[in-house]
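hey
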């Protein structure tokens, strides 16, 4: 996931499906990361709610990394 890809309109999906399957757990979590031209900000929706919006790509990286560690999220694909 790169700043330029987000600014070109790509969206990235992170989830813990693999962790849930390996651990026989149904506590599924999902985050989508994108850039909003309307807001002129990088945004993260986590489980359907907006949890982060910033002008700084580094801030976005820090937040998705923190969510990934806490909830065992892995990059699923880019949409």
């Amino acid at each position: 996931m790169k700043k330029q890809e987000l600014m070109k309109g790509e969206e990235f999906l992170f989830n813990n499906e693999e962790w849930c399957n390996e651990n026989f757990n149904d506590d599924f979590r999902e985050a989508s990361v994108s850039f909003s031209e309307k807001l002129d900000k990088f945004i993260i929706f986590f489980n359907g709610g907006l949890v982060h919006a910033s002008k700084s790509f580094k801030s976005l990286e820090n937040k998705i990394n923190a969510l990934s560690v806490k909830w065992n999220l892995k990059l699923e694909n880019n949409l």
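The chain has a mean pLDDT of 93. The first strand starts at residue 12 and ends at 15.
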